[in-house]
Design goal:
- The complex is a heterodimer of chains A (466) and B (162).
- With 466 residues, chain A is mainly alpha-helical.
- Helix content of chain A is 42%, strand content 5%.
- Chain A folds into 3 domains: 2-180, no CATH class; 194-301, Cytochrome Bc1 Complex, Chain D, domain 2; 324-459, Orthogonal Bundle (Cytochrome Bc1 Complex, Chain D, domain 2), CATH 1.10.760.
- The two termini of chain A are 26 Å apart.
- The relative contact order of chain A is 0.09.
- Chain B has helices spanning 22-29, 85-92, 102-115, 121-127, 138-157, and strands spanning 2-7, 10-15, 48-51, 54-57, 70-72.
- In chain B, strands 2-1-5-3-4 form a 5-stranded mixed beta sheet, with helices on both faces.
- Chain B is built from 5 helices and 5 strands, in the order ββαβββαααα.
- Classes of the chains: A mainly alpha (466), B alpha+beta (162).
- The interface between A and B is medium-sized, with 29 and 31 residues.
- Bound molecules: FE2/S2 (inorganic) cluster (2 copies).
- One FE2/S2 (inorganic) cluster binds next to loops of chain B.
Chain lengths: 466, 162
């Protein structure tokens, strides 16, 4: 009830602000003319090298992830994107003339990326991250256009957005843009290296890392003063990737490059949740671009303090020692009871560090998840597992949803936090466990190849929770 | 140490450490050899049984989690003389090559069909995905599961018990 009232309050405040701004900014931002439709260009009219470059850029931009519905055709749209304001459905960006962008001239595509308006001149919702894409160069936009216009056309109209009044009024977006949108393209920082600039351009532009890694304000804009500070997206905890990164062994450009390309790193574990499709995409592009992104992000994280480096080394030493000594098979009689017993008998067999990631599980002394502000990611992975990638080797983890009760899972999580992190106990584990188990928190499960097992597959349980 | 387990409707005490994987207890102590040891690390599904109507990998499930829960194995689906619908369907379709994966396949499929015997083939395929078959028997397995669904649906229509 309280939550509903708060939501209503938030909604009304948001509404008032938007109305005022919408009126104010109307003149300067609101109006864009339509760009005349064209007859769909033939695929042969596009230069093959341009198309190939566009493919890499589309992978960096993660376009397929939002513009593909679960089980649907790539780029044909229709994925529901939940926002605090309602559900927005991604559009069809295949060259279908009626339901896709087949009649969009190149200029309209470039304008949509740069200014966030569609061919007809209507404002687009920033669920399409044009606050980032505005930085993309004309040259790269031309390659993206060539790539998209040479996909197979799929006739598929996305469902209507489910946005209550007034958020269904696109005119209000002019106000949002006046507040939060700064038009590109990217301007390099001449005091930095070319690689750093390339990384900055990709990270802030196409990769739009901040769309998940930077928390958002009440109106859904990224909080610039909490850059890369972490957030919660689709009921996955998104880690801070600034100085507050929870990784026990500090990230470096090398380890990040490896992780982003392979979807795992021996000192950090496997990518999952909404990060899985990102690493799947980045695995398909030339290494120098991934390295540039890693170089920039590592720079944002900053050089770790001596104290952090020492803690990382200590964690690694503990892992080496543990993997060289015999396993404790039984919970100690003085130990932490059921949580410890579950860990030793169900988790340790893989997570003892004897087989290295990705063939074995991460020793949790190295885990970001146990050091995160809440237990959500471990809850998700424990209940739903990591499904195998389709047709390629990948890390996997069996799901425990069929057997763990709420109490057992809470005890296990408390034990893990206590043993593997020096942070204080989590405060809201029980609520999170309950809400995830009863489906109130709906958790999309992504495979490491980037295909989703979006709901309803996540509720693959056939019986109610015990 | 003794653990109390309810397997195929029978509650019994087993002399085993609480940390022991269910699979070992089933095979070594209860002589229920239907569930198979494939990988032992939750990656193949050969050891699948049901716990309270849900498919569970018994090789990575310690018995300490199972006190008071209902465990069913392939032996609980029927007898030689009177095979249950799942078993009947696998016999009809001759859905086994070496047979090693089959008890696990049956139990995972049973969990699905018990909840809804009329699911479509796509759902069956998706649901069985965690279970591997090294012999390539997949097409027959899917057919058998579809057939089992029919049998279970028929008998629920005619008021019979499954
Ligand atoms: S033996 Fe249990 S999953 Fe392979
Ligand atoms: S029949 Fe041999 S493993 Fe499936």
């Amino acid at each position: 009830m309280v939550r509903a009232a708060m939501r209503a309050m938030r909604f009304l405040t948001g509404l008032a602000i938007l109305l005022v701004l919408g009126a104010g900014a109307f003149v300067s931002y609101a109006w864009h003319s339509a760009i005349d439709p064209i007859d769909p260009p033939s695929q042969a009219s596009f230069d093959r090298t341009l198309v190939a470059r566009g493919a890499d850029l589309a992978a960096i931009g993660n376009c397929n992830v939002c513009h593909t519905a679960p089980g649907g055709q790539p780029f044909a749209g229709g994925l529901g994107i939940p926002t605090p304001f309602g559900t927005i459905y991604s559009t069809n960006i295949t060259p279908d003339p009626e339901t896709g962008i087949g009649r969009w001239p190149e200029a309209a595509f470039i304008r949509s990326m740069r200014k966030g308006v569609d061919r007809e001149g209507r404002h687009l919702y920033p669920a399409f991250p044009y606050d980032h894409y505005t930085l993309v160069s004309d040259e790269d936009n031309r390659a993206l256009y060539a790539f998209l216009m040479t996909r197979s056309a799929v006739s598929a109209a996305p469902p209507e957005n489910e946005l209550p009044f007034p958020f269904n009024m696109r005119m209000l977006l002019a106000g949002w843009k006046a507040l939060y949108f700064r038009e590109g393209p990217y301007q390099p920082d001449t005091s930095k290296t070319a690689e750093w600039n390339r990384g900055h351009y990709l990270t802030e532009g196409l990769s739009h890392c901040g769309a998940c890694h930077t928390p958002r304000n009440r109106l859904g804009a990224e909080k610039k003063d909490e850059y890369f500070a972490g957030a919660e997206v689709e009921n996955w905890t998104v880690y801070p990737i600034n100085v507050n990164s929870p990784a026990p062994i500090p990230w470096e450009a090398d380890s990040l490059t490896f992780y982003l390309r392979h979807g795992w790193h021996e000192h950090h574990g496997a990518s999952r949740g909404s990060m899985a499709p990102v690493t799947a995409n980045l695995g398909s592009i030339p290494e120098p671009d991934v390295r540039a992104i890693a170089t920039y992000v590592a720079d944002v994280m900053g050089r770790p303090s001596q104290e952090r480096i020492a803690r990382g080394e200590a964690a690694l030493a503990t892992v080496r020692k543990e993997s060289a000594s015999p396993l404790a098979l039984r919970a100690s009689s003085t130990g932490s009871g059921i949580g410890e017993a579950i860990f030793l008998s169900a988790c340790q067999g893989c997570h003892d560090g004897r087989r290295s990631v990705p063939f074995g599980g991460l020793n949790l002394h190295l885990s970001s998840a146990v050091n995160a502000p809440n237990a959500q990611n471990i809850i998700n992975v424990t209940l739903f597992g990591l499904p195998a990638a389709k047709g390629e080797p990948s890390a996997i983890m069996p799901a425990y949803r069929g057997v763990l009760s709420q109490d057992q899972l809470v005890a296990l999580l408390d034990y893990m936090r206590e043993r593997f992190s020096d942070q204080p106990a989590w405060a809201d584990t029980r609520e999170r466990v309950a809400a995830t188990m009863n489906g109130e928190r709906e958790v999309p499960i992504y495979r490491m190849d980037g295909t989703t097992q979006a709901p309803p597959e996540t509720s693959m349980r056939t019986a109610p929770w015990p | 140490m003794a653990v109390t387990l309810t397997v195929n409707g029978k509650t019994q005490q087993v002399d085993a450490d609480p940390e022991t994987p269910l699979l070992y207890v089933l095979r070594d102590d209860l002589e229920l050899n239907g569930a198979k040891y494939g990988c032992g690390v939750g990656q193949c599904g050969a050891c699948t049984v049901m716990v309270d109507n849900e498919a569970v990998l018994s090789c990575v499930t310690p018995v300490l989690l199972l006190e008071g829960r209902r465990i069913s194995t392939v032996e609980g689906l029927g007898t030689m003389e009177k095979p249950g619908p799942m078993q009947q369907a696998f016999i009809e379709q001759q859905a086994a090559q070496c047979g090693f994966c089959i008890p696990g396949m049956m139990m995972r499929a049973q969990a699905l069909l018990q909840a809804n015997p009329t699911v479509d083939e796509a759902a069956v395929r998706a649901h069985l995905e965690p279970n591997l078959c090294r012999c390539g028997t997949h097409m027959r397995i899917v057919k058998a599961v579809m057939r089992a669904g029919e049998l279970m649906h028929q008998s629920s229509q005619s008021g019979g018990s499954t």
